[in-house]
Amino acid sequence: MKIPKTFASLGFKYYRYLWISSALANSGQYSFTVAASWLIFSLSDSTALVGTAVFATMIPGVLFGPIIGVLVDRYDRRKLLTTALFFNACNTGCLALLSILGFITPWVIITSAFFLGICFNLQNTCTNATMPGLIPKNTLYNATALQGTISHGAGFLGSAMASPLLVFVGPESVFALCCLLYTGAGIQSLWIRTNQSTSSLGNLNARNFFQPIIEGFAYIRKTPALGLLIVMVFFHCLLTMAYTSLLPQFIRDDLGADSGIYGSLMMFIGLGAILGNLSTASISTPRGQGILYIITALASGVSLFLLGLTNTALLAFIVGLTVGASQAVFMAINLSFVLQRANDVFRGRVASVNFILASGAMAIGNFVYGSLSKFIPPKINMLSTGGTFVILTIVLLLISPTLRSLYKKTEQVKEKQVTSVV
Questions:
Q1: Is 196 helix (H, G, I), strand (E, B) or coil?
Q2: Degrees to nearest 5, angle at CA 11 with 7 and 12
Q3: How far apart are CA 213 and CA 219, in angstroms?
């Protein structure tokens, strides 16, 4: 039976195992976010603490990302992935138990979120570094797009499962669901087989451990296209994707709604991500992908701007679809461009730096925006940050030949091409 072009990567067995594992794990991550954010807000009535929880989930990428990148290049990526997934299963299972026993506090949740973030960083870096070795090179964007359907679109499945449990049972049931999802993801990862070579870094010890980190940053610096793509994803995440901590207050104050609408909006954003990635996964030409990259960069800022203008739940759901679609497609194309241009010897470190800046930007943004929400209403924040990213993208298009080359060339940009980069 011929597999449709949209799902071409799923025809490869080990990628399929990786995809299912990621789907379960990311659904667990989103379910955790829904329950943790609303529970902290209910216990403390503090958007700042909600932002702190999101910050705690994402900041480990900044603190430990370089080390994780080296580990992913040096050791068995499948074993590292499995370890991270089962640890998160234990983490969320303990949180469910503490919640049932009545020992839950905002800072217990924030601590759990921090450890969840460490393993999420390891999971994400392993997944991204492993993908190119499981599929043919010409299907890499298809693979990252399908990965995007679950790395972002899991917001739909995770929120769809978490919302009714949160409303009718309680947050402890959502944490138990997270435990089950992570356990299933860990079991799937056990079946993955890779052809990874780890000999290039030699035996790591205290004397040479930091040298590979320095070499990874030097490699990125000498590859201008990689530098530009990583800078783009940083500002994209800082300005258009750091709104999670604002949603509880936005829904309560601007939409006049409750936890059910909060979960539903997260679900629609996730649904938009699924539809966006599936509708573009079959685009295989570099020029077509480059054009789509610019379009979705602009659409990400515009859609967040429009979300800030909504005043009813129905309008927020409709705009949420666009927010999810544009952000997910942009992130998928950006990731495929990064992985295409990274040599396998450095792929773990490059993927780690890409994730560090993305998660770090969202962590900082959520923390700062949540902390300032008493002075800057969420809708004003969405209007200003979304508009700023649109302006930034236009400016970069005007002054950066490297960015324009993504859609002007008909062949893949080569690693060593000499070009300017902002």
A1: coil
A2: 125
A3: 10
Asked whether the whole model's pTM tops 0.70, one would answer yes
Instruction: Say which residue the tokens 């949180």 belong to.
Output: 95
Cα(28)–Cα(18) distance, integer angstroms: 15
Residue 408, amino acid: K
Percent helix / strand / coil, the chain, rounded to 5: 80, 0, 20
Of the pLDDT bands very low, low, confident and very high (cuts 50, 70, 90), residue 16 is very high
Q: H-helix or E-strand containing 111?
A: helix 106-130
Interatomic CA distance for residues 23 and 179, integer angstroms: 14
Closest by alpha carbon to 27, among 123, 169, 131? 123
Q: Which amino acid is at 379?
A: K
User: In whole angstroms, what is the distance from residue 416 CA to residue 224 CA?
Assistant: 8
Mean pLDDT in residue range 100-112:
90
| Burial classification of residue 408, based on how many CB atoms lie within 10 Å of its CB (0-12 exposed, 13-18 middle, 19 or more buried) | exposed
* Token pair recorded at residue 34: 């829904």
The 8-class DSSP code of residue 412 comes to P
Question: 93: exposed, middle or buried (C-beta count within 10 Å: 0-12, 13-18, 19+)?
Answer: middle
Nearest to 262 by CA among 284, 244, 288, 275: 244
The token pair that represents 219 in the structure block:
């490699």
DSSP reduced 3-state for 298: helix
More confident residue, 113 or 57: 113
Contact between 163 and 261 under an 8 Å Cβ cutoff? The reply is no
Cβ atoms of 156 and 270 within 8 Å: the answer is yes
Q: Which two tokens stand for residue 199?
A: 């000999």
Residue 205 pLDDT grade (very low, low, confident, very high; cuts 50, 70, 90):
low
Is the predicted pLDDT of residue 332 greater than 80, yes or no? Answer: yes
